[in-house]
Automatic annotation (TrEMBL):
NCBIfam families named among the record's database cross-references: Tim44_TimA_adap
Lineage, uppermost ranks: Bacteria, Pseudomonadati, Pseudomonadota, Alphaproteobacteria, Acetobacterales
Chain spans, region Disordered: 58-83
Annotated SMART domains: Tim44 (SM00978)
Domain Tim44-like positions: 101-251
Alphabetized SUPFAM superfamilies for the sequence: NTF2-like (SSF54427)
UniProt entry keywords in alphabetical sequence: Membrane, Transmembrane, Transmembrane helix
Name of the protein in question: Tim44-like domain-containing protein
Transmembrane segments: 20-39
Length: 252
């Protein structure tokens, strides 16, 4: 507010030349009025300042009583029926029939009309999925019949050595990305039988870790890691009741 906005009563205008300080009186009255309005605005508490409130309970219930967590609402019907997520498709790499390896695979088809490279890789995938967790758990019964006698003996010896050392193996197979046939051969045997051998490169994702008695890591990591392995499978053609078995394995 400027001095031009101050209008004195007409009766006082004529006495402005006297000694009484009417302008000071008017300014003092305005100052008191302004101060009163500021007090009404600023002199009160704002919001919840200085107010102590009790924290409400997280879950409904009477104060001072033990609170129990409410049961969550049921999941949708499709999610609550135990439906497993379908496994990712494994990429099968099969040599062309015109190649040397493809020609040997063709000879195996002539020895056994039910043999196909695609079907063989499916059987090899099944064996891989069975052997990896069984070896980690030391399940000797689960390994029986999946390997040749010499290979099974080597696997059992590794399990025994691990047990004596107090070590624990964790092998969590998260997925198989690809399986490729690298080589194949046929070896003549006795009584008109031939032994077929097929070498496969397997690319998988695993959590693979070996820990000691105290649970400290000795080898591997608890992170998902990509593994490249070479597995050699063997089967005898010409004999009844034979199937593909693991004959050797090593890192690729």
């Amino acid at each position: 507010m400027s001095s031009d906005d101050i209008h004195l009563p007409s009766a006082l205008i004529g006495h402005t030349g006297h000694d009484f300080p009417w302008d000071i009186v008017v300014l003092a009255v305005l100052a008191v009025a302004l101060g009163f309005r500021l007090y009404r605005v600023l002199g009160r508490r704002i919001g919840m300042q200085g107010v102590r409130q009790a924290r409400p309970p997280v879950f409904p219930g009477a104060a001072g009583q033990a609170q129990t967590r409410q049961t969550p609402p049921p999941l949708p019907a499709a999610a609550g029926q135990g439906q497993a997520e379908p496994a990712a498709q494994v990429d099968y790499d099969i040599p062309a029939p015109a190649t040397r390896v493809g020609g040997i695979l063709g000879q195996m088809t002539q020895l056994d009309g039910s043999f196909t490279p695609q079907g063989f890789l499916k059987d090899a995938e099944t064996i891989f999925r069975q052997v990896v967790p069984a070896f980690a758990a030391g399940d000797r019964a689960a390994l029986s019949g999946l390997m040749t006698p010499e290979t099974e003996e080597a696997f059992l010896a590794a399990i025994n050595a691990r047990t004596e050392a107090g070590e624990t193996q964790r092998s969590d197979l998260r997925g198989i990305d690809s399986m490729a046939i690298l080589d194949a051969m046929l070896v003549a045997g006795d009584a008109n039988t031939q032994t077929g051998r097929i070498e496969v490169r397997i690319v998988s994702r695993q959590v693979n870790m070996l820990t000691d008695r105290q649970g400290e890591p000795v080898q591997g990591t608890d992170a998902v890691t990509e593994f490249h392995d070479l597995w050699l499978f063997e089967r005898e053609f010409g004999a009844s009741g034979t199937q593909w078995r693991l004959a050797a394995s090593c890192p690729a």
